[in-house]
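Quick illustration for those who missed Monday's session on complexes.
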Amino acid sequence: MKSIIATTASLLLLCTGAATAQQSMYEGHQDQLDTDDNGAVNRQEYQAFMTEAFEKLDADNNGALNQAETADVLNADQFASTDASGDGRVSRDEFMNRVMKDFAAADKSGDRRLQ
Ligand SMILES: [Ca+2]
Ligand SMILES: [Ca+2]
Ligand SMILES: [Ca+2]
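Prediction with calcium ion bound:
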């Protein structure tokens, strides 16, 4: 329950408008991610949340995120590493690839659930 990657924490912050960034983001927002309330966040729940996050970030609704749209959640390095094609835009696929990789990294037990 302790460590979840910074991107997710920032997205949670962004999507919930919560003011406290520092401690245990995941714990505070677990209810929002854990939609079936079983005490763990599985891939589907995480994916659904991140799909919604993408929509929220895509302020001009053009189906891709530019650096300005992600300024609150990604620094320049993170943006560059998420923009796999290097065209200066993070497409939905690039975004989902990135966050699902983060999910896998955070899922240390390998059971495809964060808890
Ligand atoms: Ca769940
Ligand atoms: Ca956009
Ligand atoms: Ca791209």
